[in-house]
Amino acid sequence: xxxxxxxxxxxxxxxxxxxxxxxxxxxxxxxxxxxxxxxxxxxxxxxxxxxxxxxxxxxxxxxxxxxxxxxxxxxxxxxxxxxxxxxxxxxxxxxxxxxxxxxxxxxxxxxxxxxxxxxxxxxxxxxxxxxxxxxxxxxxxxxxxxxxxxxxxxxxxxxxxxxxxxxxxxxxxxxxxxxxxxxxxxxxxxxxxxxxxxxxxxxxxxxxxxxxxxx
Amino acid sequence: xxxxxxxxxxxxxxxxxxxxxxxxxxxxxxxxxxxxxxxxxxxxxxxxxxxxxxxxxxxxxxxxxxxxxxxxxxxxxxxxxxxxxxxxxxxxxxxxxxxxxxxxxxxxxxxxxxxxxxxxxxxxxxxxxxxxxxxxxxxxxxxxxxxxxxxxxxxxxxxxxxxxxxxxxxxxxxxxxxxxxxxxxxxxxxxxxxxxxxxxxxxxxxxxxxxxxxxxxxxxxxxxxxxxxxxxxxxxxxxxxxx
Lengths: 215, 243
Prior knowledge:
The complex is a heterodimer of chains A (215) and B (243). Chain A is mainly α. Chain A is 46% helix and 11% strand. In chain A, the strands form two sheets. Chain A has a two-stranded parallel sheet. A two-stranded parallel sheet of chain A has the order 2-3. The radius of gyration of chain A is 19 Å and the shape is globular. The longest helix of chain B is centred in the N-terminal third of the chain and has 15 residues, at 68-82. The N and C termini of chain B lie far apart (48 Å). The interface between A and B is large, with 83 and 103 residues.
């Protein structure tokens, strides 16, 4: 599938803008959709739900052994219940957490469409939904990881998870060295979206500092 | 169906291109296409398997040449027409920016009655669409069982990817009984079936041409059979040699 063209805010309306707007108008006129509900949906996934949710889950698992055990035993409850984080619902109804270790690296894909754990990661990035990732992740995960600039030791077992059902997977990345005594809030900043898909690892404290210095 | 969506193991698509500081939506229309697809789905006139089936039914050349939300937009149109929510002619006229003329307008009062108001959106999202159902019977397989996937090529929607058909694996986890997409997509009912995570050795799937160790795929019970030794009759020559 193609990568969409970038459109500048002041660009003239594209054909797709016109067609989608036409259908939106029809749906509103027929009484099927509430225009304010459309804005609410966009706002939810553009501004409120995102990888910062998953990062909090990971940071707690790193600091609280009881929570980590709960997450690995029953991720749906540990993430979605009120006693957990309350990150639940659409595209996160049935959760499983996969723990990365020095011996085992987990990586998640959906070869058939774009299944992705929305309540903890938000909407999937374009590359996750694209043909290059969906086709290659299951046969050549090391090649895919190289596209992300990541090279794992040859002896590391690489386990790829193809999300063919309604089970949604969250990778629990390894906690970086040099973070002893860090708070949950501090640790959460090291947890990247890609590290929770398995196409990356968590940032080191040095990488985080360099990132903050450059922005 | 063996459509263009079934991409596992296909080659020639090039490198994965991660974007730096990626935006959630890449054009204004993507926001709207996303939102109208979800909001129209809230009216309950189709299920998630029907939605996936509609997207996969695009001609392969069109599917592969389309961006992700273009595929959603095409799928949505097909669903709206199929469920009698919009007339085909009036839709095509509207999308072309023309008046529908004499084309009959179509409206589903049932869908309109189930419109979700903005104030209820967060509750609907939080509820989601769980697919686990009470199990009608005991699970046929247990963790650790050696299984083989069936060889099927149905013309309808299925969630057993081609690359994993007729392959030997091992049950890694059980997830209870879940809605069976193959029937649910066709409007033939949920027919809940036991769902398992099956782990396949990467060499079983790809021979030597892989950098994976194993691939785990979620499989409903009808996709699986016990991998009994009968499937592989002993080689008489081999046993003669060992004697």
